[in-house]
Predict the structure of ferredoxin--NADP(+) reductase.
Amino acid sequence: MGRALKVAVVGSGPAGAFCAEILADEAGQDVSIDVFERLPTPFGLVRYGVAPDHQKIKSIVGSLGEIFESPKVRFLGNVTVGSDVTVEELRAHYDAVVLAVGAPLDRPLGVEGEGLRGVIAARNFVSWYSGHPDATFDTSLLAADRAVVVGVGNVALDVARMLVRTPDELRRTDVPAHVIEALAGHRVREICVVGRRGPEFAKFTNKELLELAEVEGADVIVDPAELVLSEERQAYVAGRPPVKRLLATLQKIADRKPQGRSRSIRFLFDRTPVGFVGESSVGVMRLARTSDPTIVEDLGAGLVLPAVGYRSVQITGAPFDDGIGRIPHRDSRVTDGDEVVDGLYVVGWVKRGPSGVIGTNRLCASETAAAVLADAAALRAPEGGAGPIDDLLESRGVRVVDWSRWRAIETAERELGAACGRERVKLYDRAEMLVAAGIA
Ligand SMILES: Cc1cc2nc3c(=O)[nH]c(=O)nc-3n(C[C@H](O)[C@H](O)[C@H](O)COP(=O)(O)OP(=O)(O)OC[C@H]3O[C@@H](n4cnc5c(N)ncnc54)[C@H](O)[C@@H]3O)c2cc1C
């Protein structure tokens, strides 16, 4: 066919990055891949979701970064697809467009009073402590005596753990200074982690629970009564070794004597949130026993952080299934009704839904890349597409953060860290990032 296959990937999280890597590896020399990212920074939730005290997991940015060093792959940060450039325009410029835009919205609890001040999706809190440039979190809410984290997945444990990290522990991370200041001095004394079902259905991993059990900054408390299971439930556990291990860890925590630390984290299972009560701010969270809804209890709380899952958001110009909150597809090819949309693909959380670890996106990306490559011959328009996208972006005044500019942001973050005896401190203000990138 005589010219390289041109692919646009929208989103530079793990799914988009892995997809670019696999396409670069498997399409031979004849491929060029542009990865568009709405933020000036790459890596999606690896930078803005994975907890800052999990630097080992975060170190995957080293290998994700290598993908963008390839001469076949370009990073175009600070470009929002849907407003700076449309999906239609990308489809005119590229043979294939892969949507890897993740799942940025929170799933609501759907209970009365959820709109009260103080009930804030855990994702907002995570984005704030991760230094996401769009994050808003009212730190005065940290004056509450008790905070409740709703949900029993790893994100819920991340949030609870970050609320009790000591200033020294926080200084070993890359979180911005204002985050350390707010987290070091906050007044929350008790953090309740609330699960709808019994402990045998908790979604967090044993590894995360063991880590939480050892935090310096709080007593972790499980009332032994929470772990009493009926025979039927015991039979359920018996056939599931990972669940058995998790329950054994919870039991060990329940058997420990609290150390009288200034903060505590308490697990409450079998509780369904049924409402929030307060004038304009939440004061009370109403919970019903899931196994017996006639038992209702009120838990005083000035901060409630629901961590019960995510949803994707529609990108203008791309089909979206509101019911499932994802882009519909057949074998990674985006569909509109019964029809496959030529040259449009999907990968990652926006394809599968918000589940799975970083590595899960690699398998997902290999399926999507395989679909692109299987279609490649038919995709390549003989006239060669509409030329480079750069002119269009420039004509619109879009200030693209390319890979070398991102490297300049990284350097600025290391310098900021060195100035205060830390390895690195994240820039969190978009304007400051652009100054560091040399394009403000
Ligand atoms: C709080 C939290 C903690 C987690 N911790 C871990 C962990 O410790 N270990 C682990 O293995 N997994 C963890 N995960 C899961 C992991 O982060 C996900 O599996 C993974 O990030 C999903 O990849 P993705 O590329 O689909 O989405 P994302 O990582 O969300 O990437 C999507 C990217 O698309 C960009 N984008 C969105 N819209 C546009 C647009 N219109 N134009 C251009 N760009 C756009 C976004 O800015 C983002 O960079 C965690 C998830 C969360 C939410």
